[in-house]
Amino acid sequence: MSDQVLQLRKVCMTYGNGANSVGALRDINLDVSAGEFVAVMGPSGSGKSSLLTLAGGLEKATSGDIYVENTPLGALNINELARLRRRAIGYVFQDFNLVPSLTAVENVALPRELDGVPSRKARRQAMDALRSVGIDELADRFMDQISGGQRQRVAIARAIVGQRRLILADEPTGALDTASGDGIMEVLRHRADAGCAVVLVTHEARHAGWADRVLFLKDGRIVDQAAQSYDPTDLLELPAN
Amino acid sequence: MSLNLEPQHRAKKQQLKLALRISWRDIKRHRGRSTLIAALIAVPIMMISAALVAGFSKMPSTEETITNEFGQTAGRVSLQYSDLAGISQSPKGDLSSVISDADAESGQRNGTLDDFKDLVLPDYDVLPLSSISLTTEREHATLSFDAVIGDVLNPAFDGKYKLLEGRKATSNMEAFGTPGFMQRFDLQLGDRFSTNAGEFTMVGMVRDSNSNDSFPTFFAAANDLPENFVLGPNETKYYLLGQKPATWTLATELNQRGAILTSAELLRNPPPAEQVGASAKDFADAPSGNGLDLIMTGALIASLAMLEVGLLAGAAFAVGTRKQQQDLALLAATGAEAGTLKSVVSASGLWLGLIGGIAGTLAGTGVGIAWVLWKLHNGENLLWLHIPWPLMLGVVLLALIAGVLSAYGPARMVANQALNVALKSGRTTSNHSRKSLRRGIFWLALSLLLLALSASLSLFEIIHDFELRSYLALALVIMSSIGLISSLILLTAPLLRLVAAKSAWLPLPLRLATRDSARNTGRTVPAVAAVLAAATLSSAILIYWSSSSHTENDNYQWSYNLNQMALPLTVFEYSPSSIGAMGTASSDALTTRKINAEELSSAALKVLGDGTSAAAIQGAFDQNECAGLDPNSVEIDGIMHSPDCSTWALKEPVGHQCFVATDGKPIDLQDWRCRGSMANDSGSSSLPTIVVGGEETLETLLGRKASPEALQTLTSGGAVVSNPVYLNADETTTLISYDANAEPQESVDTAEQMSSLRTSFSPQHSFPLLATVEEPTKPIPYYAVISPETASRIGMPYDERLVLLSLNEVPSDAVNDTLLTALSEVAGENYGPEKLETGPNSNVTSALWLLVGVSALVTFSATGITAGLALADGREDHSVLASIGADPRLRKSLSAAQLFLTSVIGTLFGIVAGIVATGTLQLLFRDMALIIPWTQLTIMLLVVPCIGSVMAWLLTKGRLHVLRHRTLA
């Protein structure tokens, strides 16, 4: 049995119609297995975020197939996609995207509670997740009471709570200082080492260096990929073709 | 292995709990917005609750009625005609509007205590209380007042009467008064007070629980009245003092003696219908059909008010939800299903509805209690503080439903949004115009269909039962009004798109406003909806009030022309032997006394001054008065008949009769034959039906100079007719005399009912007279004026009937008092003129403008609230404009233009909806004309948007906070 957590087969994504159409992704094929940390790099408009959006089931691909834990996303209705997101996928955003009216632990427990887990049990699981990212002492703080780095850790804790094996991180360090950013990368690395599949979209080669594999996207295509032995900054110097 | 994506057991419950928690936190985070929405719900709920407390406090419970009516006694016996066996009473006794189904026959004697004392004396002591009228002299005028004669401070009447101040009577000729009585006659405790029953010392102030303290009532003991002062049996009620319950068995026995029992036992435990017998149905409380139009209009306005609350709160929710969109999108990204997102917003409605409902109900209950206590403190005794708790809970539930419903629309909108778009920008543009157009047209068609159905129910009388038909039509009108409002809301977005497409020629601010409004319909449509609902409510109230006032004025029955007052020249008097207690004199003791017209006129003119004119009006004898005075009269069935006395009238030519429908109103309300003076036997005044006089009399009646043709007709022996209905084709009229006291003939054609009773009598004499029609300024009740010569020629007896005073203005109370005194000096003590004719309510226009002001304020509040929220929502647009160099003036203009557009469309649609809804409702009432106050509505249409725009201009800040865009990509 394949241990691929995320599979993309000939995935295309086009915005707009006719002459106004823009191809965001073209013929993307990608496999991410459990315990693998993949970084996606590329210039603005290359399709990095679109890739994550499709992988997270937030939008439907124009063509091609996407599988999460061997489940074809194209066959799911809107409610099944919602359940998939809360059971299998953890999303981490640049702006943290935490619900400001909830405390840290409540934010983390949210996907579990949405899935019908009783509040007390969900809170216990959330505390475990917070502990694993090292901020369990901030559990009862609201979002405006903690720093940016701490917020991003809360977001990661939310992404991993409930045994989810796919973490999609969209520029998670974009709003953080260097030290906080490094701390977040460390956490993501640990999650990958613990068996999660992590897909990281980043502009910074320094952060891509934490990944097992780096993909380079340009104009909606994967133009190159490198294993960890490469220095990610080398990719930036490669010719476009 | 595929993932298990089946819903988890308990997930729904958990999601609901989560939705409630998140929405509660969100409410706490946005206190200003939440307070506003809760207040929008709370205000109408407060008004409803206050009205409920006030309304229910006017309805006594059975025990309160018992205490008020009987004090500590077991009940009371009231007397009817004692010779009449087989009388049947209602279980409520004399408290029922239907007291007895007995037919009083002449010659029967009035009952006395002796008629039934053997039935009650073994078990009860009897305490009599009599209600009579007494009189007192005040500066030459005789004033009458109500008096209760009996031992009102007996402990048996505890709860019914209460000594407020002073002491009980300790010797003869000591009396009490209500606070209102003491005030009316300016009395202090210890003062002496003269009445026609003797001089009393006022020793106490007493409260009568059955009337307000301000009502003047005098209380004295029966043995203080002079011996010749006979208390009539029908004026006395005998209270039963004893422990034994006065049951239905006693009531039926008393009925056999012509008496009625009203008792605590019967009120507490009314007998079953089968025991009451066949008449039980007759005694059931009659349905109050009179207030039907009020109930229906109230229901329509209440429905519109709730709709208004829903839409206004809905608009606030819609704007709030847009601000909440980011959070909701995050929830969606975390895995929340569409239903959960809906639940979060709907849960806000639930919380705010609950808060608004509880706050509104508590505040309304407080206001209601304060009002009741204030009234009780001010001596209003017919109030009992009642709080209908179950209904109050219902009101809270109503608020809860209103909250959830108003949040549901925005919740659906949010749940259906594309997650990614929401996550990326936090703002979306709605583009459902075509769908809205289709839905709008569908709802419009459906509403018009329902309106047509309602109208045909009213017009074609498809259902014969009037009440059922009315309620059904009302339900249809309410449904179609809501449908119409919904359709107009749905059509707003397509309309805005159309306006935006044609806006290229507009100045920049207006162009930007139309384009932005068309793009951001999620913001604009709720704002338009709120204004629309407010304008619908306002215009419906305006139109209904304007129409009902107009109809009331139109149906007003003029007794005389404006500011005219009649001084009758005949006074009816009772024989001296019967004076003492009112109501005991029989008709044979009645005499008439004539008063000199000249003396009366000069006395009146002396008081009223130069601006007043007086004209003595002569006319045909009143038939009953004539027969009463005629020694040859014969009494048949209690009515005096004389061969020499007739009623005089004009006869309608064939084809000029006014036919009425089953509701008693003309078949065609605009039928000229049913309008004008004496068109339908209308009017109640002392004017003779056929007036005899010359030019001066004619001018007084017409209220203007008579035409030369009319004067010519008068002098040449013809009649100046008040209504063209009475004019024959050959320019003549037919003067007839008939016996109005005779048995009326059966109608020839029962299918057609005429408005005039006169047509059912055969004329005794007919006189064709040359005629000219000269209609009086107001349709005052007389047929025609003929000259004295003509009256003599045709043998019509006539005399001076009254003096008609024409005043320039309404006299003050002081002048009235002086006039009364002056007239009493000429005409005797009990003389009183008729009420001055002041016409229908003349404050319609000013009240209408006041209503416009209130309506505009309501609509403006809706505009202001939604605009404020929309402006807050559009702050980012202003930041963008500022960043590209737009000066504050342009941004202010943009805000003003946006608000203008929103409020113009909302107010215009609202007025249309109000007109259609009210117009259809009024079809139910055939005689109510639909009067649309165009001027007031146009001013509302202009004022609300203009003031709103000015406010938006002023409230748009010159300096802006720099906002950070929340983007993820």
From TrEMBL, chain A:
The lineage of its organism: Bacteria, Bacillati, Actinomycetota, Actinomycetes, Micrococcales. One of its GO terms (molecular function) is transmembrane transporter activity. SMART domains: AAA. This is ABC transporter ATP-binding protein. The keyword Signal does not apply. Pfam families: ABC_tran. PROSITE patterns: ABC_TRANSPORTER_1 (PS00211), ABC_TRANSPORTER_2 (PS50893). Residues 6-240 form the ABC transporter domain.
